[in-house]
Structures are given as C-alpha cells and as structure tokens.
Amino acid sequence: MAMAVAQHRESSSGSSIDKHLDAGKYVRYTAEQVEALERVYAECPKPNSLRRQQLIRECPILSNIEPKQIKVWFQNRRCREKQKKESSRLQTVNRKLTAMNKLLMEENDRLQKQVSQLVCENGYMKQQLHTVNVSAPDASGNSLVTTPQHSLRDANSPAGLLSIAEETLAEFLSKATGTAVDWVQMPGMKPGPDSVGIFAISQSCSGVAARACGLVSLEPIKIVEILKDRPSWSRDCRNLEVFTMFPAGNGGTIELVYTQTFAPTTLAPARDFWTLRYTTTLENGSLVVCERSLSGSGAGPSAAAAAQFVRAEVLPSGYLIRPCEGGGSIIHIVDHLNLEAWSVPEVLRPLYESSKIVAHKMTIAALRYIRQIAQETSGEVVYSLGRQPAVLRTFSQRLSRGFNDAINGFNDDGWSILNCDGTEDVIIAINSSKSFGSTSHPAAAFSFLAGVLCAKASMLIQNVSPAVLVRFLREHRSEWADFNVDAYCAASLKAGTNAYPGMRPTRFTGSQIIMPLGHTIEHEEMLEVIRLEGQSFVQEDAFVSRDIHLLQICSGIDENAVGACSELVFGPIDEMFPDDAPLLPSGFRVIPLDSKPSDPQDPFIANRTLDLASSLEVGPATNHAAGDAPLCQSTRSVLTIAFQFPFESNLQNNIANMARQYVHSVISSVQRVAMAISPAGLNPATGPKLSPGSPEALTLAQWICRSYSFYLGTELLRSESLGGDYLLKNLWQHRDAILCCSLKSQQFSYLQIKLDWTCSRQL
Hints:
Layout lengths: L1 H11 L18 H13 L5 H10 L8 H68 L23 H19 L6 E3 L12 E5 L5 E9 L3 H9 L1 H4 L3 E11 L5 E9 L8 E12 L5 E7 L15 E3 L1 E2 L2 E7 L5 E10 L11 H4 L1 H24 L10 H20 L6 E3 L9 E5 L19 E12 L3 H10 L7 H13 L10 E14 L5 E12 L11 E8 L10 E7 L13 E13 L11 E2 L20 E16 L4 H26 L17 H18 L12 H8 L5 E3 L12 E3 L1 H6 L1
Parallel strand pairs: 6-8
Antiparallel strand pairs: 1-2, 2-3, 3-11, 4-5, 5-6, 6-7, 7-10, 9-11, 10-11, 12-13, 13-14, 14-20, 14-21, 15-16, 16-17, 17-18, 18-19, 19-21, 22-23
Helix pairs in contact: 11-13, 14-15
C-alpha cells in the first residue's frame, strides 16, 4: 500500500488527475492552490460549507477539488497552527525551567557552602572552648587584640576610586553568589514555577540587607539601563544626580552619585546617599553594577542641598546580570544599607531596622518592575480604555511622587510650615510656587493664584492588618470621606482657579463605582478610576451630571505579603482623562512595624489607636528592666495621612481651617474603622474596644446598668465600679454578655459594649 501511494505521488506531479482523487486518498496541492487557501485561511480560519463552495466558484484553480477535501485541508491547517503555538509555548517554558533549574542549583551550591562554613566555624569554636578549659589563664598577661585596618585611599583620585570600586565588586559578588551574608528565605515569598524570583533577607549582619534572583526576558544591557535610572522605578527615590563619571578598565565606568530618598512618614527625616557606582563586565560576559557609600558625612553636594536629610550608608550592593542561552537574563539583586535608625523616634526604628521592609521597597520592587517592563515589551499586558502601559505607569508614578512630596514637604520644592507651634498633631504646610506640579509634565502644572495647602498627620495603630484597613478604606469611601471636599478639589481643577464659593450644592448618592485601568503582574498595585455619583439640590440642574472622578492607586492589600507597605493614593481628574491631566494626590499609607510587646496590666494598650505627637523620643533605645518585661505581643503599624487642597490668596485661612478640621474628621473615622475591623475586637480576653474619652460609650453603659436594676431589682455591677472608665471595663468583662453596635446616619460609628443576655430579652 505504501508503494502504491508513493508511486501515485510521483506520477501526480506531472498530471492533472492528482487534483481530484477519492476522499480517502492523499491529495497533492500545487503552490498556487496552497497560496489561495492560505489567503482565505488568514481571513477566516474556519469557513462554513457555503463559504467553501463560494471559494471553489471564485477560484478556478480549486474547481477540481471536492469541498470535502477543502474542509480537510482547513482542519489540518488549524491543527498545524495549534501544534506550532503549543510547540513554541513548550520551548519557552523549557527555556524558563532550564534557567530556573540552573538558578536553583547555584542556590543549592551556595547553601551547601554555607553549611560547610558553619560546620567549620562550629568545630573551631569547640576547639577554642576546649583550649580555654584546659589551659590556665595568665592574669598578668595582657591580651593583644588586633583590628584589621583598611588601607587609606585617596577618594579624590581616579586610582583611589578604582581601588575602592574593585573592592566593592568583590564584596558585592560574595553577597550575591557567595556566603558573605547569612541569607534566610523571605517570609511569605516561597519560590515556585510562577513566582517572580527567589527572595531572601539577612538574618544577622550589620544594617539591613535583602537579596533577590530571578529570570527576566530582557537583554542584560536593557536591564542595566533600567535599573541605573532609579527614579523611574523606585517610588522612594526623590532625585539621583551623577556628579562625576570616568572610564575604568574592561570598558567599565565609575560614577560618583548623590541620591535623595523620601521619608515614609511625617515623623522622620528623609535619607540621602553619597556613593560610588561601578559598572563593568566580567570575564563570563555578565554585567555588574555595584555601589557603596564613600566615607565622610560632608562629602557630596553642598550642605544646604542636604539640610533636610540624614546621611545614610550603602554597604556593597548592586546588580549581577547574566545572559541566558536562547535569550533573557538571570539577575541577582543585593541591597545592603545602614539607615541610621538612631535618628528617628524609638517607636519608628523598626522601619529602619527591618530587612523585610527594605526587601519590599527596593529589592522586590526592582525585580517586579523589570518583569513588568518585559511583559509589556512582549505584548502580554493589555490595559483597558486603549491606554498604553507606559502612560498608565506614568500616572501611577505621578500619584505616588506627588503624595511623597506632600508628606515630606521639602523647602526646595516651595513648601513651608504654616503656624506650627509643635503642639498640633495635624501639620499644615503651604506651597505658593507658581509652577507647582510635575516638573516632567509642564502642561500639568497648576495655575492657581496662590498655591496648594497640605494637611498631614501620622499615628500609631495596633492589632489591625494594614492590608485589611486599606482595603476597607478603598471599598467603603463613604465611611470616612466628605463628598463636598472631593467636589471642591474637583471643581478647582476644572475651573483652573478656585471656584469653591460659587459651587452648586450637591448631595452624594452613596454610589461609588470602581473602574480598573491596569495592574502590575502580581496585582500588588492597581490603578483605577473612581466615579462618585452626585445629585444637585437645585431643580434646574437636576439633569446635569455632578459626578466626581478620581484617579487612584491601591497597593499592598495582599495579607500574605509580610512587611509590605499598604497605600491608597488618589486625586481628582477630569472625566475625559487626558494624558497630561494635573494631579493633586492625597491618601493614606500604612507601614507595619515589627511586633512589640505591650503591657498586660493595661487592658486598653493592645487595642487603642495612639497619637504619636506627645510620645516621640529621639536618641538611644530605652532599656527595660527585667521586672518590667511585658508578656503579650501586639501588631503595630504607622498610619500617615496627607490631603492637599488648592486655595486662593484671599481664602488661605479659611481653607487651612477647613483642611485641619477635615483631617481631624478623617482621623476619627479611621480610628473607629481600625478598632471595628481589629481581630482583637472579637476576643474579650484582649480587652475592650472602647474609646476612654467617648461620652456616648459612658452614657450607653449607664443606661444599661439602670435598666438592669429597674427591671430585675438588682445591681448589674458593684457601686464602687460605676465611675468613668471603670464602668466600661467592668461592663465589658461581665461573664454573661453580648455585643451591641450602633449605626448613625451618614457616619459610621460603633461602640463595643456588652450587656446581660437575660436583661436584653426582658427589655
């Protein structure tokens, strides 16, 4: 049978009989016939019976082929296309798995070296202990302690800088691929086939350190170009300026770089760095960008430029990018810093002593950004509203940068504090610069007569997950926001000048529509438009839209991300959503602190929301006596709020008072929400969820006790415990009790009070 088919194929090449065979036999198509069928396939891969018959009529070269054979050709063509796509996908997956396998094998080798090193150190320590035990101490002898001294080098000469660069390179490589740092796996970031990379943090080393390695489908040169432009991907980088650059060996370069970073909260100063950055190529073709601080706090730019910053230190850090076979790169990232935690209040020092926070803000953020750019380049990311990914990414960066500018309020940006005596917990700052706005978007600058006013505050919250709190604030805006304030800011942007006195009275209908625009590859950040539906009180304007649109970014709402910062930043925007729209960002930032013990004697301490303004201390850490050691743990976070308002010169005082009152109102709402969603609120053993200064709580507690006494003829509590806060505490701890809540119109409030179940049934 095979012989017959072969003979038929050979004879059919020069005859016309092969164009029309039985349905069950092989058909050999000419090049013209295949070209005609391919044209139809490109337009319609699956034509129906009528289309196939029409094709035969319109193409004379196909007239001698049966419709059934054409149907079979299209089936085979679709099958080949599917096999081709699947083969391409499997090849891509195979290359990725091969690279990841290589990465994991290298990680395994590094861990084995680390184990061997620890075994050797353990044996050496045992030998030293044995030597100390068997030898008699010489009391008269003086022990000689030698401290290794680094050779002094001239950081002002190219030769000295090259020596520092080579030493930095060696130390960085030992951290990236060696055992110079005792790395442990990042909590909540297990490696896997679909993970962004492998993440680790330092367990015991000077400063804080984080490490990441992963596979990226970009060429090494492109990755180096992106990572060296730190302000483009790091939300915490305010400015990066290269002061000096000169060539080094192997085609490398040495740069002296001055970097400024934003402070995460209003309660701490910002950091700056004066570093040497060395870019070179290794013998195996890998690219390296390593960096370290140069000694001397006075080095770098003028003191006036760094007046609002604390000089921090970059220990040998950087990026190692190795090309992969078949395309792509394997990237190793190491960030090792000394953030000078002594310069911040003791309660905030975990922010500067936590390697997990550095990992999220710098190391993981860099690798995620590279992966995001790679997917956008390959066309894997598709956003809504027809916007290009770069445009939406720019919107996110402008919102984040504007929010950081408002929190920090740098003098060289035009900010100044307004009437602050140090006792007010809400700080009012104004910016009267005429060109206030994004410097990279001059068309987006505001044209207000006076400027912008910012009201900001920070506080400590306990026993509340930052992710849960931010998610609640995002989904239930009406619980804390004032629609009229949003309408005022939106009207100011539309009018170009402040139009608040002439605004039409508007009522918020309570409807909030969230329209997603885009998100990052792991959904850790979302960009969206919020539409707040408003309704006019004036009858003649009943059919005029009073809706308000906000551009908003929400990040860190994944509860499994350990140490991640949660943010909700928004700003009014025109409903046409132009690319150069001016933005005035406001919002919330919640940063988790490491768990800190709390005093078990105070039933309120684990659950209340604290104001930091009256309890901040800067200096050495406080030593607690052994007898004062607390017994329980509480989860703490720092919440920072900043709201910006445009104003005219004749309304500055009015807007300042309005802003201060509004931020106080938002703080109160957030405190109530935080206590309501706290898991400890459902556990009576952790203490009451009460506000000691709340008159409503005390009044309701007194009513409960009086009703109990009136209907049952006996006292619910002893008379000596009926005064002030003791009444609330004892009522909460009553053995037979249930939970009561209250809901006020237009404002969410709550009161966690417990009362006797028997009494409630009789009432």
